[in-house]
Amino acid sequence: MSALVDLAAWIALVSGSVFCVIGAVGLLRMPEFWSRTHAAGVTDTMGAGLILLGLMFKAGLGLVLVKLLMILFFLYLTSPTAGHALFRAAHAYGIPFGDSVLARSKVKGGVDGSD
Amino acid sequence: MPQMNMFEVAMVGILVTMLIALIAAVRGPTVFDRLLAINMFGTKTVLLIAVSGFLTGRPEWLDLALVYALVNFIGTIAVLKFVRFGNLGRDDEESKL
Fold it and tell me: Where are the domains of chain B?
C-alpha cells in the first residue's frame, strides 16, 4: 500500500513538472499574446494541480493535507481571476489578434496547408 | 547513478519553468506579456516553497506558500490597475473597475 502511494506520488509529481515545463516553453515560443495566455493556463491548472496532488499523496491524513487543500483552493480561485483581469485589460488596451490566428481560421484544409 | 528523490525531480522541473518564465518576462514585447510571465512565476514560487518544505522534511513551510498564493494575486491586480490608470487609486476619481 505504501509502495502504491509512493508510485502515485511519483507519477503526479513528474507529470506535473512536465506540464509546467511544457507550458513555460509554450510561453516562450507561441507566436502572439493570446496563444501565450493559453500556454500559461496549462501550468496554472495541470502543473500546479498535479504537483500539489503528488504532495498530498505524501502528506497523509492530517493538518498538512488541509493546508495543501487550502493552497489548491486559493490557487484555483485566484489564478483564473487574475488571468481574467489581465486578459480583459489586454483586450481593452487593444492587443491585436495575430495574423497566425486569423490565417488559421481562413485556411480551409488545416494549419500546414496540406489540403 | 545517484537515486533522485521525487521532490528533487519536481523541484528541478519547477526551477526550469521559473527560469524560462523569467526569460519570457524579460523578452515579452508588451507589458501584458511580462505580467503573464510574472504571474506564472509567482504561481511557481508557491509550488517551489511547498515542495522545498517537503524536501527538507518541514511541511510547516506550507503556510508561507499559502501567503504567497494570496500576495501574488494581489500583486498582479495592483500592477494591472497601475498599468491601466497610471496610479493606484486617488481620492478624486471613482474606481471604474
Answer: 6-85
